[in-house]
Design a protein that fits this description.
Order of helices and strands: EHEHEHEHEHHEHEHEHEHEHEEH
Radius of gyration: 21 Å
Largest sheet: 7 strands, parallel
Number of domains: 2
Length: 324
């Protein structure tokens, strides 16, 4: 059995595949595969292990319908046409759970960095701007005792909420379709309407998946309903916020600041106005970028791959309907 891997992945996952007797082919060139190249490389493979944002659309799936499994080196699967894969009986695997702590840490980092203008102040040192002391210049805002609002309180949101509640005594409110019983019991979190979330959050963190309902959810109209001293955090998917509207909201003072681990598009162009704003922190989508987390992701992706090649149910399957 052969697997094509679209990026170099950690050795832990590679070892698992090799120990299972799987033949490996890796794309090691540091550029994205074109759609046609992806199809061509999969023609002689039995499985695809996709790392990166490769488009697994209907065109690809029809051309690679022989694949026994497609294993994603990610939690998100918004780049996959799940309906088309299910119709072709191709199981899709992902890597949930293992990156919750690392991603929550990144969101927490963005809250702190943005509230104290840390990224911007670091740049002033590089430019020789650490000079005359002014007591009223470059002031941040404190988040201790403020209200954290979470849009999409799942595993990552819960970990972020714990950090904010325990370390900074923040009140937790959240918007979900249903109640998060653990958050309510352990943290005193309160489920609110979307309008209440916007009106009451001092820090509003997006921790949901990208779906047709969440795509572009945070736009001009939404930012206008937020507090003028609010910080907007997105460590989920860039397409959930409208980047032009976010830029305008910050320029007009509709909200105080923003911290982003995801942008739309990615990568962000280096002259984007958000990168020069004092109260904005931007990271290049590093939410899961720790040695431990990426290794764990590679192992789960490898286990999904091996299970699919053996005709077994994937440990973590996105479309269980293929087994019906």
């Amino acid at each position: 059995m052969k697997v094509f891997i679209t990026r170099k992945i950690p050795d832990l996952g590679l070892k698992y595949l090799m120990d299972a007797g799987i033949s490996i082919s890796e794309w090691t060139t540091k550029r994205d595969l074109s759609p046609q190249e992806l199809i061509e490389h999969c023609q002689n493979a039995d499985a695809l292990l996709s790392a990166g944002n490769n488009r697994i659309d209907k065109t690809f799936l029809k051309a690679a319908a022989h694949l026994k499994v497609i294993s994603l080196h990610s939690v998100g699967y918004d780049n996959v046409d799940i309906d088309a894969a299910t119709e072709l009986k191709i199981p899709i695997g992902n890597t949930p759970g293992v990156l919750s702590n690392a991603t929550a840490d990144t969101a927490f980092l963005l809250i702190l960095a943005t509230s104290r203008k840390a990224f911007y102040m670091h740049k002033t040192i590089q430019k020789g701007g650490w000079g005359f002391f002014e007591p009223t210049a470059n002031l941040g805002i404190e988040i201790h005792g403020r209200t954290l609002g979470i849009f999409g309180l799942g595993k990552i949101g819960f970990e972020l909420a714990k950090r904010c509640a325990y370390a900074f005594d923040m009140k937790i409110i959240y918007y979900n379709r249903g109640h998060h019983i653990d958050a309510e019991r352990e943290l005193g979190a309160t489920r609110v309407s979307f309008s209440e979330l916007l009106e009451n959050s001092d820090v509003l963190s997006v921790n949901t998946g990208l779906t047709p309902e969440t795509k572009g959810k945070f736009n001009k109209e939404v930012f206008e309903c937020m507090k003028r001293n609010a910080i907007f955090i997105n460590a989920a998917r860039g397409a959930i916020h409208n980047e032009d509207d976010l830029t305008e909201a910050l320029q007009k003072g509709l909200i105080w600041g923003a911290g982003l681990d995801v942008t739309n598009p990615e990568p962000m162009r280096p002259d984007h106005p958000l990168l020069s704003m004092p109260n904005v922190s931007v990271l290049p989508h590093i939410g899961s970028a720790t040695e431990e987390t990426r290794a764990a992701m590679s192992l789960i992706a490898a286990k999904n791959t091996v299970a699919g090649l053996r005709g077994e149910r994937l440990p973590f399957v996105v479309n269980p309907e293929v087994y019906a």
